Every structure is written in C-alpha cells, then in structure tokens.
C-alpha cells in the first residue's frame, strides 16, 4: 500500500505542475516553430494580406487546439459536464473553474506566437505594405496607381529587381516595423497588467467559493486517476486468477485422461509446485493449443 | 511474485506513455529524415509532378506502416481477432478500440512529414512549377514560344542554375508564388488535422463514455493476460528444465554407481550443500561421460515422479523405460568384460 500512497501523493502534488510544464513547453515550441518557419512573403498585391494575416492567426488557433488536446484536465472536465447526475449532483461552479483554468493555460502559446510575430515584424510588413499611402513616400509619389500597388506589394522582398533600388523601400519597411513592434509591446503590456490585476484582486472577491471550486476540481481529477489505477490493478489480479484456473483445469483434464494417481506434493522438488502437474512435452503442447483455441471464460468465481 | 507485480504495474501504468514516446520519436525521426533527405527536382516537364508528389505521399505511407510494425500491440490485436471463440466470446467494440488507438498513433509521423514538406515548399514548387499562371505573374506576350517550349522552360524553375526563362517569368516571383501556395496548404493541413484530433477527443465523453470505459478495460486486460501467461509459461519452462536436468544427473549418477559395484559413497554429514550439489558426480571421467551423454542422448521431455525411499522406487506407471534401459545396457557390457 505504501507504494500506492507514494504514487498518489506524487500525482496530487504534481497535477498543477505537470499542466504548467506542458503549457511552458508549448510556448517554447511556438517560439521554435516561428524561428524555424521560413517566412516568404509572396509579394503579390492580392496575396500579401491573406498570407501575412494567415501566418499571424492560423498557427495560434492550431496552438490553442493543441493546448486543449494535450491537457488531460479538459477530458476530465468534459466527462464531469456530460455525465448523468446519478447519486452525485453536478456543481457548475467547479466545471466553470476547470474550464477557465484550462482556457488560461491553452491561451499562453497562441499569445506567445502573436507577440513574437508582431515583435519580429515580417508578417505585418507583408500584410500591410500594399495598404500604405504612396503620397507619404518620395520613391512612390510619382508612379501610376496600378504600378504603385505592384511596387508596394514588393516592399517585403528586398532582392526583387523592381524594388531593389527604390529609395523609399526601407522607409516603408521601417515604418511598418515600428508599428508592428509598438503593437506587440502594447499587447504584451496590457496582458501582463491584466494578469497582475486579476491575480491581486482575486482574493477580494469570493475567495471561499474559489477555494471550494479548486478543491473539488482537484478531487475529481484525483478520483479519475485512482479509478484508472484500481481498474489496472483489478485487471491484473483477474488475469492472474484466470490463468491459474486455466492451468488447474488443464491439470485435472490430463489426470482424468491418463488415469494416473494424483501426484503427491511432498517429497517433490520445490520447483515442482510451479509445474502444476504439467510435466511432459505433449501436455505442454496441449496446454498451449488449448490456450489459443479455447480461451477460458472470463469468470473466476 | 512481488517483483513481477511491480514490473507489471510499471508496464500497465506506463504503457500509454511508452507508446506515446515511440510516437513522438517517430515524429522527430520523420522531421530528421526530411532534413537529411537531399531533394533533387528533375526539372523535366513530366517528371516533376511524379517526383514531387511521390516525395510528398510515399514516405508518409511507409511511416504509417512502420508505425504499425513498431507497435507491439498489433500482434495482440491480430491474435484476438483471429482466435476461435472457444468458451470466451469476442467483443468487436474492444477490437475496434484497439485498432483505433493504434491507427491514431501511427498517423502522427506521416502527418508530420506531410506538414513539414508542405511548409518547406520544395515539393510543391517542383510538382506544380509548370502550372504557374504566366499571364498574371510574368510576361505572357513573350513571342515565339510554343506550349511545349513554355512547359520546358517552366519546368526548370526549381533549378535556378539552369533556368533560362527570366524574360518569361522571373524565377524569384514564381518560386515565391509557389511557396506561398505550399505554405498556405501546409498550415491548412495542420489546422485540419488538429481540429479533427480535437473533435475526436472532445466528442467522445459526450456520446459513448460508458462503452469507452468498458473497451479500454478489456483491451488492457487482454494485454495483461497475455503478458502474465507468457511469464507463467516462462516460469513453468524454467521449473521443467530444472527438474529435467536434475533427473538426468541423478539418472547418470545412479547408473554409474550401479556399474562400478560401489556402495553409494555417502557424503559426510558435515559436507553440507556443496556435496549435494555435486549430484554424485565427483571425478573427471564421470563428468565427461555425463557431458557426452547430454549431447548424444538428451533426456526425453518427460519428468518422472520423484523416487520414493522404498526398494523398487517407482510409484506411478509413468516410468520412462527408454531412459532407464540405455545406461543399463552399458552396465551389462561392463560386467561382461569382467
């Protein structure tokens, strides 16, 4: 029992840290994904906006869904939500608490991606270079409308022959980069202030209800884990009994067919107890064949 | 048994994490394989499509099959599926659960390969470079080029060193366009896979939780039962071998004592375990004969019951006549010499 107690204590104390760990790993994975992704703006008028905004928003959705999938507690919460009440009432406050804690953890990686994208600037430059006002930049001021769209769309591609020597390319690029970084830092600042305020003000509002909700959500999680462990232990014992019964029934059958006197245990080697009365090649073959062709019923009464 | 119980508990609790670990390793291996693979677009009109799509679709198929091969549970599934019913009914829900969980894990490495390939862009660039819209992106009014010529020129887009169509359509423009399409496809593919995984995982508790718990329990049970049976058979084989060999040595020692007409030399009472372990074989010649006999004439796989202390010694009717008679023949020969 000691071993079980140790394992359960481990699970209990580390459920939160395991989830925080997964959250952190996903955030790191999101940064790594961004740095290894080879961003290449198409530099075409209709495609830039779709590509830039797509790279900014589609991976966060993927990361959010991954955060939900990898979090074990989301399954626990869903089961608790959908189960029939039975003898145990459902507490919506607990389900709400679990839901909000899951969502908060799942939001970290997408937010990290968006902030890294904005601070890096490539996405915004790609998406909005075609929306710049050409009058503001000397290099684009005297160009016809159709051509100016083409030129502006090529600003993110430094080496393109049409834009390589344009004096205002860098100006547009720097302008958009500046906006992108400002947006990134502002979002980061707002989120951190919001998190700070939420954490500070939380004890002022309904702390008792929060403690209850947290306790019961931990309880549901632990109960689920212990149930799974108990089922495993039970299936192991069941299998053990089933196999012992099978060997005994084979022994009885062999003795019945060969009319020999039942073998006495005394005076035998210690190892013979484990032989279960099956002591030659044919008997072993018969046992193995019967195990395959006629598995014993799932009944150890 | 305690040691076995601990080992089984380890396997049971860690079987899921073990399979997830293999799954993760295969996904990493698939990324590594892609980066180590030297992609070489043929840059010929009809070969590009075949090469590009082949690299995109064939390795995932191989990785999928490999995922099944490396999964230990596949033989368990096959055995449970094909066994005769006997006294135990078969539950198709359990088989379906086992198959689904194996297939889900086997799908991860192929999905990673396809995503990495699409996000990298080389395959799609190679496969579809001849379908680039020259009218919108390039100079379609370039004169004196037949359709076949245009195809040949476009097919060389992935190979920058030999590209000769810069007037028709700039190489960077075409590559950027194709890359953009490829990356968009890649992200959409990843989004689709993730959404599917999310739906599969989250809709299950809403619909069939009780049936799921049942299938999961019985699939674990079948696995544990198989492992326990193998362990029990191994234990049995060990005991069988031990008794068989012990009886062989006892048989040798008894026959040699009878052949030499010596009284069985009783080991002094204080010689202890070491004398017992010698099993009556105490000189080089005897040992050599025992070894030779073990090689030339292994004892049958048939254990006779232990000898009782009375005179004739055989309680059951299972005495192996062949085992006893061969050494007896040697005894007769020895006597005849004398």
UniProtKB/TrEMBL annotation, chain A:
Its main location: membrane. Belongs to the CALHM family. It holds the Pfam family Ca_hom_mod. GO terms for cellular component: plasma membrane. The keyword Zinc does not apply. InterPro entries: CALHM. The keyword Transmembrane helix applies. GO terms for molecular function: monoatomic cation channel activity. The chain crosses the membrane at residues 49-70, 106-130, 182-201. GO terms for biological process: ATP export. It is found in: Membrane. The gene is Calhm3. Keywords: Ion channel, Ion transport, Membrane, Transmembrane, Transmembrane helix, Transport. It is a multi-pass membrane protein. This is CAHM3 protein. It comes from Irena cyanogastra (Philippine fairy-bluebird).
From TrEMBL, chain B:
GO terms for molecular function: monoatomic cation channel activity. Residues 312-338 are annotated as: Disordered. The keyword RNA-binding does not apply. Pfam families: Ca_hom_mod (PF14798). It is a multi-pass membrane protein. GO terms for biological process: ATP export. Keywords: Ion channel, Ion transport, Membrane, Transmembrane, Transmembrane helix, Transport. This is CAHM1 protein. The gene is Calhm1.
């Amino acid at each position: 029992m000691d071993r079980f107690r140790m394992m359960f204590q481990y699970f209990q104390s580390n459920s939160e840290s395991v989830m925080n760990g997964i959250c952190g790993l996903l955030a790191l994975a999101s940064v790594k994904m961004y740095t290894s992704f080879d961003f290449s703006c198409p530099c075409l008028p209709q495609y830039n906006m779709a590509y830039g905004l797509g790279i900014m928003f589609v991976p966060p959705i993927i990361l959010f869904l991954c955060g939900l999938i990898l979090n074990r507690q989301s399954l626990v919460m869903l089961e608790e939500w959908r189960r029939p009440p039975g003898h145990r009432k459902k507490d919506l406050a607990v389900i709400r608490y679990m839901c909000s804690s899951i969502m908060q953890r799942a939001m970290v990686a997408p937010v990290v991606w968006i902030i890294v994208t904005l601070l890096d600037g490539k996405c915004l430059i790609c998406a909005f270079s075609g929306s710049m006002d050409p009058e503001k930049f000397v290099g684009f001021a005297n160009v016809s409308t159709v051509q100016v769209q083409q030129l502006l769309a090529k600003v993110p591609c430094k080496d393109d022959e049409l834009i390589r020597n344009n004096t205002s390319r860098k100006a547009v690029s720097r302008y958009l980069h500046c906006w992108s970084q400002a947006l990134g830092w502002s979002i980061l600042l707002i989120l951190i202030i919001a998190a700070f305020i939420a954490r500070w003000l939380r004890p002022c509002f309904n702390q008792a209800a929060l403690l209850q909700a947290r306790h019961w959500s931990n309880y549901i999680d632990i109960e689920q884990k212990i149930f799974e462990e108990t089922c495993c232990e039970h299936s192991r014992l069941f299998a053990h009994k089933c196999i012992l019964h099978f060997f005994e029934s084979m022994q009885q059958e062999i003795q019945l067919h060969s009319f020999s006197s039942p073998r006495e245990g005394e005076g035998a080697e210690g190892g013979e107890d484990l032989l279960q009365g099956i002591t030659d090649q044919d008997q072993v073959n018969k046992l193995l064949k019967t195990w395959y062709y006629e598995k014993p019923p799932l009944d150890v009464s | 048994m305690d040691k076995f119980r601990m080992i089984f508990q380890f396997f049971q609790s860690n079987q899921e994490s073990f399979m997830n670990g293999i799954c993760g390793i295969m996904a990493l291996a698939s990324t590594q394989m892609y980066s180590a693979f030297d992609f070489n677009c043929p840059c010929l009109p009809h070969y590009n499509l075949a090469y590009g799509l082949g690299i995109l679709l064939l390795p995932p198929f191989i990785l999928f099959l490999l995922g099944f091969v490396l999964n230990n549970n596949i033989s368990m599934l096959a055995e449970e599926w094909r066994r005769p019913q006997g006294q135990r009914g078969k539950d198709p829900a359990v088989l379906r659960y086992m198959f689904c969980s194996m297939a889900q894990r086997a799908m991860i490495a192929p999905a990673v390969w396809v995503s990495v390939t699409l996000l990298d862009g080389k395959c799609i660039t190679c496969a579809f470079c001849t379908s680039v819209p020259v009218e919108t992106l390039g100079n379609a009014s370039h004169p004196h080029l037949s359709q076949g010529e245009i195809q040949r020129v476009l097919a060389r887009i992935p190979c920058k060193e030999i590209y000769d169509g810069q007037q028709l359509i700039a190489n960077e423009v075409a590559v950027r366009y194709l890359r953009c399409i490829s990356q968009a496809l890649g992200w959409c593919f990843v989004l689709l896979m993730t959404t599917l995984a999310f739906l599969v995982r989250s809709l299950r508790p809403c619909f069939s939780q009780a049936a799921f718990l049942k299938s999961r329990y019985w699939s674990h049970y079948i696995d544990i039962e198989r492992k326990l049976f193998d362990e029990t058979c191994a234990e049995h084989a060990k005991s069988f071998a031990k008794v068989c060999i012990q009886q062989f040595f006892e048989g040798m020692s008894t026959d040699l004592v009878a052949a030499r007409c010596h009284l069985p030399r009783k080991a002094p009472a204080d010689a202890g375990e070491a004398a017992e372990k010698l099993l009556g074989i105490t000189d080089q010649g005897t040992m050599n004969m025992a070894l030779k006999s073990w090689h030339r004439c292994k004892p049958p796989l048939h254990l006779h019951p232990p000898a009782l202390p009375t005179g004739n010694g055989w309680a059951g009717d299972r005495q192996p006549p062949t085992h006893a008679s061969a050494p007896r023949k040697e005894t007769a020969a020895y006597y005849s010499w004398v």
